[in-house]
Structures are given as C-alpha cells and as structure tokens.
Amino acid sequence: PWGGAGLSGFASGRARIGEAWLIADHRHHHSIVAGGGHAGWTLHELLDHYNRRLLGSLADGMRGGCFPLMLKIIATSDSLSVQVHPDDATAERLGELDVGKTEMWYVLRASPNSKLICGLQPAVTRADLSEAIESGLREAIEPMLSAFSVAEGATVLVPAGTVHAIGADLVLAEIQQNSNVTYRLYDWGRKRSLHKAQAFEAIHFGLAHPGPNRPLGYPQRDGTCTVLAACRYFAAEHLAVNGVCPRETGGRSFHILLLKSGMLRLADGEGTWEQPLPEGRAVLVPGEQDEYVLMGGGECLIYYVPDLAKDIVGPLRAAGHSEEAIDALC
Questions:
Q1: Could you tell me if 116 and 147 are in contact, meaning their C-beta atoms sit under 8 angstroms apart?
Q2: Which residues are catalytic?
Q3: Hey, which residues does 266 pair with through a beta bridge?
Q4: Phi and psi dihedrals of 91, rounded to 5?
Q5: Domain-located, residue 35
Q6: First and final CA of the chain: distance in angstroms?
Q7: How confident is the prediction along the chain (330 residues), in pLDDT tens digits per residue?
Q8: 246 lies in which domain range?
Q9: Which of 185, 269, 325, 326 has most Cβ atoms within 10 angstroms of its Cβ?
C-alpha cells in the first residue's frame, strides 16, 4: 500500500514497488549472481560452497548457514507502519525463525517534506504507549513518536528495539541484519494486522534515539571515505572517487558495493579482472580479496562487517576526529 515509483526500473510493467532486495540470503528471497563463472548461483549456494573465502575471517554466517546481512532499496509514496524489530535475544525468546534486526537507512532521494520517525519521546512509558495504541487514534499516538525532517545523504542507525517508521516520498538504501521480522504497532488507519503483544516485548523503553548520525570522513588516495555508521553487525561508508582509489579488506570481511552516482569501475588489486560498477545492482567483493580498486569518477556506498578498532576507530583517530565524535558514530 505504500510503495513508490522510485524503483519502477526493477520490474517491467509495475509502476509502484516498495522494496528491492539487492543482497539477500533468506527463505523469502535469494539473490542470484548476474554474471561471470558463477552466473545463476544463489547467494546461499555461493556461501555454502566458499564459506570463509566469501565471508572473510571476521564475518560469520547466521543460523541455517545464511549470509549475515541484507541490503534493500526502499521507495515510498506513503508512510510505512509504525513498527519495531526485536533484538537477537528477543527474537529467539519469541520463537522467531530469524535473528533480530538492527538496520541503517541512507537517504538516496527525498522530497522537501520527507520525514523519518525513529524512537519515542523520552518521557513515554510502556503504559503511555499502550493506552495510545489501544485508542487507535493518530492524535494520541503521533505526539509520542520522535520525527525529524531528512534530505538526501541523511544517515540513521536504527538499533533493534527502536520504534520507527519511514515517511512518504523517500528512496532509502537499507543495510540490516538478515532478518524479516517486523512487529506493527500502528498503521495510519490501514486495515492490516498489528502485532501489539510481540511489539511490546521487543521495544526498548527509556532509550532516547539521537536522530540522524553525524558522519566522519578521512582522505584516501584519489578519494574521500566517510563513515556513515558502524556497529557490531555492519559498517556503512560513503566513498567519493576521482581517479584510482584502492581499498583494503584485510581479508576480514566481504564488501558490498552500491553505486550512488557517476561512473566507477571495479578491479582486483593485481589487475587480473575489471568490471563496471552497475547501476541499480549491488556487487559483492569476497572476503578473501585482500584489496580491490575503484576507478573513475563517482560515489558509492560500501557495507561490511567491521573490526571496529582497525576499520573505524583507527582511521578516524588518524584523521584527527575527537573521541567524542567517534564514540557517537560507533
């Protein structure tokens, strides 16, 4: 009911699409390799065959031997439901097949009035929210939610247990734990089912959400890397390239690349292969690839499982960022 026109290019004949799962290894959808020697393989088959060579030394597969992260593009014409995702412990306690779900949004496109909801107002208690949800009244529920305006480039980390909703007229890149568990609290008068009991089990009351992240950058050869968000599940970076920009994985984790703008080519560090970074598709660099190179002029988003000390804190300290700013980002 809320899908937008921003993803119409992903499926012919469909004007409105809500989500495109670009990297997914889930019982509801498996990504398929588009080209090369493994064309036609699913991501799950790749992981089953290559395991650590695909994941890297640090990243771990999940329950059922699945890939740990999922990358989506979300396009909205209307607001999504007010909802919450459980953390790992709560998902297990409630008998879910999936793990919990911490996620991060990066705004690719926004209208002048676009908003995101993330968190409850600090004074809201379990009893307050329960009474408002039971009333079903928008005027009772909306004042309890923490909403803020966003523009292109805004980044928001959404820890599991955080009440949230994506507003209308947005296109987002969403990186998340590999989970599809959502508990709806309120659906703006639409008649879909709600999951009030599970939602109240999952909500982390008393934790104020800080709002959009304050990314921190540092220079790289022929480029600038900006750390958008980092947690134990994933790191997200924006890389602006103008020339030949080498990137190191250290063999610790796969890297997921998503072109944002411009024209970039991807090559290995030894010069044995090279390919364009395609528009509208994600590229997965295996963890065993110690180094790769991005060439050209453009911007991309990069996601991976971080060693927080080596991949995030060290480079940001070296660039002169304060401990306070780094702590706020991690």
A1: yes
A2: 184
A3: 275, 294
A4: -60, -40
A5: no
A6: 35
A7: 666 666 755 554 456 778 999 999 999 999 999 988 899 999 999 999 999 999 999 998 887 789 999 999 999 999 999 999 999 999 999 999 999 999 999 999 999 999 999 999 999 999 999 999 999 999 999 999 999 999 999 999 999 999 999 999 999 999 999 999 999 999 999 989 999 999 999 999 999 999 999 999 999 999 999 999 999 999 999 999 999 999 999 999 999 999 999 999 999 978 788 999 998 899 999 999 999 999 999 999 999 999 999 999 999 999 999 999 999 998
A8: 216-329
A9: 185
Same domain, 174 and 135: yes
Q: Check whether residue 324 and residue 302 sit in a common domain.
A: yes
* 227 and 187 share one domain: no
